[in-house]
Amino acid sequence: MDSAQDAAEGYRPWSEVTPDAARRLLVAAVDAFAERGYHATTTRDIAGRAGMSPAALYIHYKTKEELLHRISRIGHDKALDILTTAADGPGCAAERLDAAVRSFVRWHAAHHTTARVVQYELDALAPEHRSEIVALRRQSDAAVRRILTEGVASGEFDVPDVAGTTLAVLSLCIDVARWFSAAGRRTPDEVGALYADLVLRMVGARPRPQK
Amino acid sequence: MDSAQDAAEGYRPWSEVTPDAARRLLVAAVDAFAERGYHATTTRDIAGRAGMSPAALYIHYKTKEELLHRISRIGHDKALDILTTAADGPGCAAERLDAAVRSFVRWHAAHHTTARVVQYELDALAPEHRSEIVALRRQSDAAVRRILTEGVASGEFDVPDVAGTTLAVLSLCIDVARWFSAAGRRTPDEVGALYADLVLRMVGARPRPQK
DNA sequence: AGGGAGGGTGAGCAAGCGCTTAGCGTTCTC
DNA sequence: GAGAACGCTAAGCGCTTGCTCACCCTCCCT
To answer: Which stretches make up the HTH tetR-type domain (chains A, B) (predicted)?
Structure first.
């Protein structure tokens, strides 16, 4: 069901993971981690979902944690790419904020299993992997903050607390991964549109500079 | 550090749990679950934090899951109490929404360890316990939705999608438990004030009826 | 003083965990 | 067509897990 959306975006998930068996294992791990959590997932479960014996996992990955790290890294790269593309894109601050929130939320909804692992299993990473990922997250924060700062400077936005509002905007988007269900009534596009509107209200977006 | 805030609110956490040893175990479990997650926490760790032998846990609780259930139940009761108190309180819709978000967020920040367990370990509950808790959550949702509906009816709010906005407001507040750190720069009160303002903007709160 | 109840411990069981190793079949190389 | 390389499996090792059990200590009641 994600594949239609992905094809439309020209985005084929996990295509960067080779060989095929390694990708199947990784996709199985994403499903298992999202469903039961990293610690509650066994390597036997992952291998089983991929249609392999438990030992097959260790041909392609040194440890279970390496699997999580790969997932987290790829997911964070994608999330950061979405945000920086919007932040550095064309249009006024309001248009870029709309695009950022809309696409970021859409990704979290459409790929909510992946996003759940990416956003909620950070603490399960080994310390050195964790700090690598945290650096990526700081870049995401910076991208959103940049849009807000520019909007305030141009007079489009009314934001008393840029740092706090940045935090809130990202938090709002990220939490979509927790509650979104494919069985629910809303499509990723609808949630993206709703959230973009809510965020523009949060920053007090006005039509254009008014000095 | 929570205790000053709690005393000010006349709220002493876990006072309903007796005897003393059972409370100590429960508090230890909250810390451990919040820090490492339910599945990654061992019963030996919980007992150790409470200064007891591993077997002592099973005098007061039948299983590790019963501990989680007790924590989740007490936490959800408190959260629901906060929201319904605000929703049924005095004042116009904007004042009640402000109070609801402010106190709900303040609780999530001040008790972020408890809140983290309450909000993010739902899936670790046994099915029958899970559905009991889900029912409480639906009541929380209803309380917020009530405020929004009344605000729209009175002309105070401009909300095109009440159900979606309710979801977003709760989501925003709940996610505070994920990112809030006592070591951070913001106090629970400050975050509560910031979020109350952001939410009032989200619902397009206007001074008063304007027909 | 004696007895029972409740809170606690040390040792340990069965099961399941992450991960390893010896070996098998297939494919590619020269 | 021999032999290395690769992808994979069956079996299992050492360890940790949630939980149990036999026993002990300290009260309190009579």
So the answer is: 19-79
Q: Do B179 and A171 touch (CB under 8 A)?
A: yes
Residue B131 Cβ under 7 A from any strand D atom: no
* Span CA (A67) to C1' (C21), Å: 22
Residues B53 and A44: their CA atoms lie apart, in Å, by 32
| Domains of chain B by residue range | 64-202
Tell me what the mean pLDDT of segment B131-136 comes to.
96
What value does the mean pLDDT take over residues B18-40? Answer: 92
Q: Is the pLDDT of residue B208 over 70?
A: no
Distance separating alpha carbons of residues B56 and B37, to the nearest angstrom: 21
Q: Report the distance separating Cα A117 and Cα A104, nearest Å.
A: 16
Closest CB to B175: pick one of A175, A186, A194: A175
Residue with CA nearest C1' of nucleotide C21? A55
Does B42 contact A at CB distance below 8 Å? no
Model pLDDT for residues A81-126, shown as the tens digit of each residue:
999 999 999 999 999 999 999 999 999 999 999 999 999 999 999 9
Q: Please tell me the number of Cα atoms within 13 Å of A198 on its side-chain side.
A: 33
Q: Which of the four pLDDT bands, split at 50, 70 and 90, describes residue B211?
A: very low
Q: A112 to chain B: which residues are within 8 Å by CB?
A: none
Query: Among candidates B12, B20, B21, B65, which has minimal Cα distance to B43?
Result: B65
- What is the pLDDT confidence band of residue A21, given thresholds at 50, 70 and 90? confident
SS3 A88: coil
Span A62-67, average pLDDT: 94
pLDDT band at A211 (very low <50, low <70, confident <90, very high): very low
* Residues of A in Cβ contact (< 8 Å) with B202: 198, 201-202
CATH of domain B64-202: 1.10.357.10
Residues of B in contact with A197 (CB under 8 A): 160
* Per-residue pLDDT at B1 exceeds 50: no
Q: Which of B165, B168, B201 sits opposite A204 (nearest CB)?
A: B201
The set of residues, in sequence order, having a beta carbon less than 8 Å from that of B173 and lying 6+ positions away, is B101, B104, B105, B108, B195
Residues making up chain B, counted from first to last: 211
